[in-house]
């Protein structure tokens, strides 16, 4: 034991450390501080026995109270599911039209559908459902396969040209690059541009259109949801509106594929998605 | 063996002896303030009655606001995010009005302190008021100062136990009532009091009452002056607020010194004697346990009870009042200079008196005129300005408001007929407790029509919606413009939403933009 040094002025022992003549006093702790300190030690011991704490080789002690964060999460998830239960049950029973007519159910379905959309649909349709070339914009009022609630539900449930679903929507536009000559293609593209922009419809393309295209797109080019044939008279173009883009689509059409979601997400979620998509502003 | 043993006697003292050791903690010395009588004491009773009355009774005042709003005059309705104050209803976004009131309170405190010193501390601070109330109880049960000192020193007899138990029981009852009154400001008082006694109130109500009961009892009953001396920052700040023209409670030693207990004897001996007879009346009434004759000090809350006590003694002795008085430092210095010949000699009481023994005309006294000085004008000006701005803000605020949020994704949608659609979330705030029907219309955007989701109406440039009383309503609005009307494609156009209540003529505009593709 070294000799205790006592500070002359305060009469308190020093720690023996000295810096430039300044020595550190070794004041005893206040009693309340010590007791608080001891209390925290006791508390820590009790805590590590009651709760999971001590690391073992492959896991840790589980604690006497049997608490776990997983169990907590499970409880909260169960409670959240239970809270949604009534709505989900109601949506399960109701048709999409009925959901749309009911204020509360519609609000719930839109929220749930929005969440499902952000997980499953944004990869192609974009986070605002505004699409991109080849992927339809779901905000507008143009619907390839129909914009009524039931049409939208069928499209989501069974997909488009999706090999894994028997009821999937199928249509295929022939590649007219093999059927029409260069001139004919040029004429019909001019006609299609005129259809959309209100130009001259009496050109040579009119006959080509009537012979080749009207079967699906209709005499007036209005298209048809039953075949998924686009309306060629409107302002919306899936693959672009320039003559070059239309020519490319006539000669060698591209066809998008949308997966069927019913098998994967279940009927209820598909209904919720339908209500959400219908609510984006273009639903019929 | 010889009877003497040789040993050395050291001339030393233990450096760490109990005698020299200083405790880190100063134990409280008990204070037993004597009851004072006088005009300041009466004024304090009045202030106490008014402030306690306001605090305990305000939640019970009713105010009819119709069927859609609570009928409690003052209510902080946190659950519904409303603050009611008589005819004023404040929504959370109008909270700046309350912030303004706090600014006014701050400037008011500066103004009061720079003129009449720590009047806040001495008269209206809750700590002062409640300590006063607790002292009333203590005096009623244990008696005045001397009886209390005797009781405190007496052994624990049945009587002492009974008195102490009664005192603390009443203190705790007051504390419970104090904590209890607080929660009534946050919920409908008559309902809450029923819920509270039947155990059905929210846990936070019980916790609030428990905490406030504890703080009231501990601060008002047990800690008293220690709260002011050790815990409160204001005594420190006020040093910066006072100047030589601020009134503070002052012992006028220029007329009191040299103090003497035997004036006649002193006169006979030819010794000068001041007015102070060293009766200690000022000391025994002091709730802070100080001697005002030591000069201005941090502990003094300027409650002026020592003025009352001293005036009583001066009256008995037939001398002028005001040996202890509200005095400014400037007056004090001038009188001190008079009594000491500008510091040339000790205080000579004869110098401040005329031949007849009355106060000399050369003595300075406080005059109301001294309240008007640049500093107080600035404080008052700032205080009044904030007040006027608040009144303006209150009178001119909108009771019908609208906020519009443009959809960010997508910013615009091209429809099949080539027209362009933008989506908006329109929030309508009806801030009156009555239902009203308003018209929302579009302006400045050529050819614009709108369509509201979930509302059965024809697409047009105006719609009519009903707003619930005192509620906000959110509408999803799609605005559509034919392509040929778009003036400059690719540029944002100006769009104005206008909402109007035809019956009250309240209206609001919101300018936003309408995006178009290139």
UniProtKB/TrEMBL annotation, chain A:
Residues bound to heme c 1: 121, 124-125, 258
Domain Cytochrome c: 108-196, 200-281
Signal peptide range in chain numbering: none
Pathway membership, UniProt: Energy metabolism; oxidative phosphorylation
Cofactor-binding details, from the entry: Binds 2 heme C groups per subunit.
Keyword field: Cell inner membrane, Cell membrane, Electron transport, Heme, Hydrogen ion transport, Ion transport, Iron, Membrane, Metal-binding, Oxidoreductase, Repeat, Respiratory chain, Transmembrane, Transmembrane helix, Transport
Pfam families named among the record's database cross-references: Cytochrome_CBB3, FixP_N
Cellular compartment(s): Cell inner membrane
GO biological process: oxidative phosphorylation; proton transmembrane transport
A GO cellular component annotation in the UniProt record: plasma membrane
Listed cofactors: heme c
Predominant cellular place of this UniProt entry's protein: membrane
Single GO MF annotation: heme binding
Membrane spanning stretches: 32-54
Lineage top rank: taxon: Bacteria
Residues annotated for heme c 2 binding in this entry: 173, 213, 216-217
Quaternary structure, from the entry: Component of the cbb3-type cytochrome c oxidase at least composed of FixN, FixO, FixQ and FixP.
Family according to the record: Belongs to the CcoP / FixP family.
General function of this protein: C-type cytochrome. Part of the cbb3-type cytochrome c oxidase complex. FixP subunit is required for transferring electrons from donor cytochrome c via its heme groups to FixO subunit. From there, electrons are shuttled to the catalytic binuclear center of FixN subunit where oxygen reduction takes place. The complex also functions as a proton pump.
Record's protein name: Cbb3-type cytochrome c oxidase subunit
Species of provenance: Aquamicrobium defluvii
TrEMBL record, chain B:
UniProt xrefs under InterPro entries: 4Fe4S_Fe-S-bd (IPR017896), 4Fe4S_Fe_S_CS (IPR017900), Cyt_c_oxidase_cbb3_FixG (IPR014116), Electron_Trans/Redox (IPR051684), FixG_C (IPR032879), Ig-like_fold (IPR013783)
Annotated ranges, domain 4Fe-4S ferredoxin-type: 267-295
Keyword Metal-binding included in the entry's annotation: yes
Keywords: 4Fe-4S, Electron transport, Iron, Iron-sulfur, Membrane, Metal-binding, Transmembrane, Transmembrane helix, Transport
Domain of life: Bacteria
A cellular component annotation (GO) from this entry: plasma membrane
Matches recorded under Gene3D superfamilies: Immunoglobulins
Transmembrane segments: 43-63, 83-112, 169-185, 205-223, 377-395
Gene Ontology MF term list: 4 iron, 4 sulfur cluster binding; metal ion binding
Keyword Flavoprotein attached: no
Coiled-coil regions listed: none
Annotated PANTHER family: FERREDOXIN-TYPE PROTEIN NAPH
Protein's UniProt name: Cytochrome c oxidase accessory protein FixG
């Amino acid at each position: 034991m070294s000799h205790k040094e006592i500070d002359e002025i305060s009469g308190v022992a020093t720690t023996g450390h000295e810096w430039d003549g300044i020595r550190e006093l070794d004041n005893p702790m206040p009693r309340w501080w010590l007791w608080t300190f001891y209390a925290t030690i006791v508390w820590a011991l009790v805590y590590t026995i009651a709760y999971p704490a001590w690391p073992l080789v492959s896991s840790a002690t589980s604690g006497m109270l049997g608490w776990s964060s997983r169990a907590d999460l499970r409880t909260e998830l169960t409670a959240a599911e239970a809270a949604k239960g009534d709505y989900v049950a109601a949506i399960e029973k109701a048709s999409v039209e009925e959901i749309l007519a009911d204020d509360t159910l519609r609000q719930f379905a839109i929220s749930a559908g929005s969440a499902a959309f952000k997980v499953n649909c944004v990869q192609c349709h974009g986070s605002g459902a505004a699409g991109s070339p080849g992927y339809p914009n779901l905000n507008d009022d143009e619907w390839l396969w129909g914009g009524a609630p039931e049409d939208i539900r069928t499209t989501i449930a069974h997909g488009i040209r999706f090999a894994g679903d028997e009821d999937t929507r199928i249509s295929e536009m022939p590649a007219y690059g093999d059927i029409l000559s260069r001139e004919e293609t040029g004429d019909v593209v001019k006609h299609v541009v005129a259809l959309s922009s209100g130009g001259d419809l009496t050109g040579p393309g009119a006959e080509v259109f009537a012979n080749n295209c009207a079967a699906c797109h209709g005499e007036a080019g209005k298209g048809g949801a039953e075949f998924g044939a686009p309306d060629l008279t409107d302002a919306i173009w899936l693959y672009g509106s320039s003559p070059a883009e239309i020519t490319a689509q006539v000669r060698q059409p591209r066809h998008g594929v949308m997966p069927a979601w019913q098998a994967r997400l279940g009927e209820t979620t598909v209904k919720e998605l339908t209500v959400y998509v219908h609510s984006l502003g273009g639903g019929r | 063996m010889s009877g003497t043993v040789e040993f050395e006697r050291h001339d030393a003292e233990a450096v760490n002896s109990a005698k020299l050791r200083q405790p880190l903690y100063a134990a409280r010395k008990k204070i037993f303030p004597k009851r004072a009588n006088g005009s300041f004491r009466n004024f304090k009773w009045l202030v106490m009655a008014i402030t306690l009355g306001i605090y305990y009774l305000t939640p019970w005042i009713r105010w009819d606001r119709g069927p859609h709003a609570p009928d409690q005059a003052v209510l902080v309705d946190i659950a519904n995010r409303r603050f009611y104050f008589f005819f004023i209803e404040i929504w959370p976004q109008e909270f700046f009005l309350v912030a303004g009131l706090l600014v006014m309170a701050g400037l008011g405190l500066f103004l009061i302190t720079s003129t009449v010193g720590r009047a806040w501390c001495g008269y209206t601070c809750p700590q002062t008021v409640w300590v006063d109330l607790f002292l009333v109880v203590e005096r009623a049960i244990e008696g005045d100062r001397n009886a209390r000192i005797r009781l405190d020193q007496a052994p624990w007899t049945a009587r002492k136990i009974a008195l102490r138990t009664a005192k603390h029981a009443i203190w705790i009852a007051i504390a419970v009532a104090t904590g209890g009154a607080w929660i009534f400001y946050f919920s409908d008082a008559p309902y809450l009091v029923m819920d509270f006694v039947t155990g059905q109130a929210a846990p936070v109500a019980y916790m609030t009452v428990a905490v406030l009961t504890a703080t009231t009892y501990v601060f008002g009953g047990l800690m008293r002056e220690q709260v002011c001396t050790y815990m409160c920052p204001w005594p420190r700040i006020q040093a910066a607020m006072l100047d030589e023209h601020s009134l503070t409670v002052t012992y006028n030693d220029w007329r009191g010194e040299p103090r003497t207990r035997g004036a006649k004897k002193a006169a006979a001996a030819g010794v000068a004697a001041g007015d102070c007879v060293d009766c200690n009346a000022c000391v025994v009434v002091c709730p802070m346990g100080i001697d005002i004759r030591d000069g201005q000090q941090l502990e003094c809350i300027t409650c002026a009870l020592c003025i009352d006590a001293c005036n009583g003694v001066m009256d008995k002795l037939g001398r002028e009042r005001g040996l202890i008085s509200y005095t400014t430092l400037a007056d004090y210095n001038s009188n001190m200079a008079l009594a000491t010949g500008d510091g040339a000699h000790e205080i000579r009481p004869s110098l401040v008196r005329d031949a007849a023994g009355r106060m000399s005309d050369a003595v300075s006294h406080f005059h109301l005129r001294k309240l008007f000085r640049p500093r107080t004008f600035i404080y008052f000006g700032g205080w009044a300005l904030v007040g006027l701005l608040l009144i303006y803000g209150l009178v001119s605020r909108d009771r019908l408001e609208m906020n519009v949020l443009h959809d960010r994704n997508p910013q615009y949608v091209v429809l099949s007929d080539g027209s362009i659609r933008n989506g908006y979330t329109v929030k309508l705030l009806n801030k009156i407790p009555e239902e009203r029907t308003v018209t929302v219309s579009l302006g400045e955007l050529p050819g614009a029509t709108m369509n509201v989701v979930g509302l059965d109406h024809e697409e047009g440039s105006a719609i009519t919606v009903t707003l619930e009383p005192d509620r906000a309503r959110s509408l999803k609005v799609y605005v559509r413009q034919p392509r040929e009307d778009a003036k400059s494609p690719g540029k944002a156009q100006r769009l104005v939403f206008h909402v109007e209540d035809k019956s009250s003529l309240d209206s609001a505009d919101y300018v936003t933009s309408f995006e178009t593709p290139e």
